[in-house]
Structures are given as structure tokens and as C-alpha cells.
Amino acid sequence: MKLTKFFTAVLMLTVFCISLTTFLWTQPQPDWRDKIEEGGAIFGDFRYKEEAGTIKILRYEGKGTEVIIPESVKLIESGAFARNQLIKINIGADVNLDILAFEYSSDTSFTSFYLKNGKLAGIYTRPNADSKVWTRE
């Protein structure tokens, strides 16, 4: 009798957990890129914020394959260039990139390439959006 009650309780708990998981899984998930800092301003395709004289990009909203990052930018936040198909990036020297600045792009190797090359200013390119090989012009 006690064993039957135990198995019934486990079965009911399992059904509840599956139902809850199914419910949560089917709910629309917010885009994490919408969770940007309050007070950001917009300049062209960039949402940015200025703090203590440092301009940081919070999010890039452009749809093209090429981007020119303004010389005044000194910091690029995590996920700022997420889900972009960039093949040409014009960036200044010594820009601090969060390691996940280009997360969810078709390739995240740009951050590593830029850092390994001493954060030099220049135009960085790759042959296509699927390539993981960046070069500096």
C-alpha cells in the first residue's frame, strides 16, 4: 500500500514537471539583445552609452556585411554585434572588446584575431560570412 502511494506521488510529480517544462518551453523567449542598459543613445546603426568620457557600443542594429566602428568608440559590450554576417570591419586601435562582443555571429573569431594582433587599427576582412579566417589590410 505504501509503495503504491509512493509510486503515485512520483508519477504525479513527473507529470507536473513535464507539464511545467512544456509550458515554459513553448512560451516566447525575449531576445537577450533587448536587455540593454537604460539610457543608451542612438547614432546611426549603433546604440551606445558614454560613461566618464568613454564611448561604448551596446548594440549594433545594422543589417549589412560591412561596418565602420567610429574612432571615438573605446569599448564594445558583450553581444553588441550578435547575429551579424559581417565580412568587413573597420575598427580603431585599442578598442576593448568583451570576449563575447561578436557572440552568435556566424563566426566569433574576429575578437580573438583582433586581440592577437595587438588591437591594431585597420580594416579586417574575411572572404565570406562562413569563413573563420580574418586578415588585416
Describe this structure in words.
The structure is a single chain. By secondary structure, this protein is α/β, with parallel strands linked by helices. It has one domain (32-136). Helix content is 24%, strand content 26%. It has two helices and nine strands; from the N terminus they run H-E-E-E-E-E-E-E-H-E-E. The chain has helices at residues 2-26, 109-116; strands at residues 41-43, 46-51, 54-60, 66-68, 73-76, 88-91, 96-97, 122-125, 135-136. Strands 1-2-3-5-7 form a five-stranded mixed beta sheet, with no helix packed on it. Strand 1 (41-43) and strand 2 form a beta hairpin. The protein is elongated and about 75 Å long. 18% of the residues are buried. The model is unreliable at 29-37 (pLDDT under 50).
Notable features of this structure?
about 140 residues, alpha/beta, 4-stranded mixed beta sheet, single chain
Summarize the structure.
With 137 residues, the protein is of the alpha/beta class. The protein has two helices and nine strands, in the order αβββββββαββ. It has a five-stranded mixed beta sheet, with no helix packed on it. A four-stranded mixed beta sheet has the order 4-6-8-9, covered by helices on one side.
